[in-house]
Design a protein that fits this description.
By secondary structure, the chain is α+β, with helices and mostly antiparallel strands. Helices cover 19% and strands 44% of the residues.
Length: 144
Amino acid sequence: MAEVTLNTSAYSYAYRPKNPEKVSLAYSTDSQWRNRSSFINGREEIVEFLTTKWQSELDYKLIKALWAFTENRIAVRFAYEYRNEDNQWFRAYGNENWEFDELGLMHKRFACINGLPINEEDRLFTWEGALRPDDFPSLSDLGL
C-alpha cells in the first residue's frame, strides 16, 4: 500500500504564526497530551507547552504520514528537524495517536518521540519557508 502523506499545509498554517492561544482552540478544553516525558492537561497547559517548545526548537520542519485510522482515532508517524539556539541540529522521529471528541476537537494526543543530534550537512528537510512543498519526498521516499 502506498504511503499517505498528511497534507500538513492547514496544520502548518495554523501553527505558523506560532500563536499558542489560537492553536489551543483546536483541542478540547479538557484535552490530555503526553509528549515525551510531559503530561499536559487542558488548553492552558497546551499554551504553556507550545510557548516553551517554539522558543527552543528553531527552524522546525515536519513531515507526517498517516499510519492508521478508525472512527474518531488516527495514528501517524512523523519526523522533524530543528536547531537549538547553539545551532546544533536535531532530527526527531515518532508516532502520535490522536482521539477526537464529538465536536471534532482533539481530545487526546499521545506522542512517542526519539531525537538525535545531526550535523547540518545531514539535514534532509531543506525546503525554503515554513510550508513543506507538495512535491517534497515523503518519509518513505527519504528512507525514514
